Amino acid sequence: MASLEINSLVKKFSETTAINDISIRILDGEMVGIIGKSGAGKSTLMRLINRLIEPTSGSIAYNGIEITSLKGKNLKQWRSKCAMIFQQFNLIDRLDVLTNVLSGTLGINFKLLKLLKIYSKKEKIEALTYLNNLDLSDKALQRVGTLSGGQQQRVAIARAMMQNPSILLADEPISSLDPKNSKVVMDDIKKINKKDGIMVICNLHSLEIAKEYCDRLIGLSDGKIVFDGHPSSLTKELAEQLYDLENE
Amino acid sequence: MNDSLLKRHITIYSEQLRSRRLWNIFIILIFAVSFFMSSSIIDFNLSQIIDGFPRLSDYIVKILPNLDINLILENSKTEGSIQYWYFNFKKYAALLYETFNMAVLATLMGFIFALILSFLSAKNITPNIYSYHLVKRILEFLRGVPEIIFAILFVWALGVGPLAGIIAITIHTTGALGKLFSEVHENADLKTCEAIRSHGGNWVSEMRYGIIPKVLPNIISYALLRFEINIRASTVIGFVGAGGIGQELYLVINFNYYEEVSAIILLIILTVITIDISSGRIRQKIIGEMGV
Ligand SMILES: Nc1ncnc2c1ncn2[C@@H]1O[C@H](COP(=O)(O)OP(=O)(O)O)[C@@H](O)[C@H]1O
Ligand SMILES: [Mg+2]
Predict the structure, then answer these.
(1) DSSP assignment, residue A143?
(2) Which of A47, A130, A188, B102 has its CA 20 to 30 A from that of B83?
(3) Cβ-defined contact of A115 to B214 (cutoff 8 Å)
(4) Are residues B207 and B262 in the same domain?
(5) Residue A51, exposed/middle/buried by CB under 10 A (0-12, 13-18, 19+)?
(6) Atom of ligand 1 nearest to the CA of A14
(7) How many structural domains are present in chain B?
(8) What pLDDT tens digit does each residue of chain A (248 aa) get?
(9) Domain range holding B23?
(10) What is the complex's ipTM, to 2 decimals?
(11) Using CA of residue A154, residue A159, residue A161, residue A166, what is the dihedral sign?
């Protein structure tokens, strides 16, 4: 079975050690929640997996292929294989929904024509299908900046799906959403995990949601793993330590 | 507040005032000294200016048209009519059109070159630090040299005519807009760029979808402003033989065709005003509506 294997991963910034000797193995089809205080290193871990930043040492391998040494075309291919969605959505606000979703194909199939917003019919149909699955097809030609936060995050999910990813990395996907929209977005992510069998790694701020949606939780504190297991085996003390509940 | 405290405040205040006054006197002295030093170097004296004034007004009176209120609407054969004053109107119009086209072409080409170079010379998005420094220096050179110098150069190399002017203004525009554009990019939020990189998108895609949609309204607005400047530049540049209405103005000034001088200047002023107003309107509209 395909898997993502992280071994002795370290990432140092000038002063802080954001990731401090982490080793994990995540199997295809798992939905993993990464939990921990702000500054624990959750975002850094995602960015390392997507190779938006370079590790200081250690290895990341997918299906036995070392990721940390990929270059050029192979690196771009890897990035498109592990799609990413962000807390702030990071969409192109001034452009329409459809173009935003289509921009997800820039990595897997770059063509000069795409710089003129010309995409193939097949890709457009695919984009509209994803939008339709997320109940957004009627918004296809609307400008992204005019949508609500929840709708924008679902556009970002559709954009991620255009990459035909093997892994979906979600960095605090619901932190800027209200409870109702949070549920819709998490349901959509769960559906992608269950129906399409895509590995999901999700940084979550809310322990409740993490417990509700994930089959496995990984607790990070100061760049180290302090918990790895089924949500039910997370003790109250550890949870309090992880989230610093007394201060909230 | 008691009396002693009040007194203290007043003394402190007047002390501050005194020291500030001393500073002011010192600064004025420095200005005065540098003024006299620099004016002696360039041989600047007031009497020369005062002597010159009557001559200046003489010239203005000379170039004013002889309009006769009773004959003002007569045909071009009658002295005193507007048509007589503007007997050469067709030629002026053609030359103004040429000047306008010079500005349009030069602004468009300068815009394209500036846009391409600006991505390389914006610190936050440049693909590597060497191209950043190289392109930045190139842009500095391009805008550091005035259009008129480039124009003289190209008139000499390519001959008299609008082509020299277009190239000269294009070069200067590239430098000026390139700097402004890269500053706009440097203020742009890079979140969208990061998202596109996370899809595996290349640098060009990042620029196209991460930067351009965000900065375009700003950039267009700068370009239209530059267009207004270039209208004036393409007029002046004609003086060195680089085509357009300026070349004709230089001619009539040199041949002392007095009335034609005022006719042309008036036309230029009207054109510039019209373009300033309409481009201002267009700028406002574009900022609200663009989605590229
Ligand atoms: N680009 C960076 N430069 C320097 N320090 C960074 C950078 N990114 C993250 N860090 C530091 O690394 C640590 C982990 O950050 P992050 O991964 O964003 O935490 P989390 O997402 O869990 O809140 C923090 O101490 C943060 O200040
Ligand atoms: Mg974070």
Answers:
(1) B
(2) B102
(3) no
(4) yes
(5) buried
(6) 4
(7) 2
(8) 789 999 999 999 998 999 999 999 999 999 999 999 889 999 999 999 999 999 999 999 999 999 999 999 999 999 999 999 999 999 999 999 999 999 999 988 899 999 999 999 999 999 999 999 999 999 999 999 999 999 999 999 999 999 999 999 999 999 989 999 999 999 999 999 999 999 999 999 888 899 999 999 999 999 999 999 999 998 888 888 887 654 44
(9) 3-51
(10) 0.86
(11) negative
